[in-house]
């Protein structure tokens, strides 16, 4: 009998499958479907930063900006040097019409990674 994880009877392999399926849903423009799958993964693995980052992206794509902000912030608490998370949080703030925190996180993203998109967003021409 396979080992289960939690009361749902789902296995760790099932969570990996759900994570990969959520990536596909997000890529095919179904962010709400991705969030649903990731909720189950994160319930069992709340420390999984990759799942939280993917869920934050899905919230952003679904225009659920407050949940996106919270997830990106949690990722940054765990990985303060994650340039992508800074950039995505900045975009979230930008969409909420909060230019000051957006500018701060755009600049942090550019300082951590000289990606041309990050540099443009931070208004550092490079």
UniProtKB/TrEMBL annotation:
Q: Which organism is it from?
A: Streptomyces pilosus
The record's section on Gene3D superfamilies has:
Tetratricopeptide repeat domain (1.25.40.10)
Where on the tree of life does the source sit, at the highest rank?
Bacteria
Keywords noted in UniProt: Repeat, TPR repeat
Write one Pfam family the protein is assigned to: TPR_2
Q: What is this protein called?
A: Tetratricopeptide repeat protein
Q: Where are the TPR repeats?
A: 83-116
InterPro entries this protein is in? Answer: TPR-like_helical_dom_sf, TPR_2, TPR_rpt
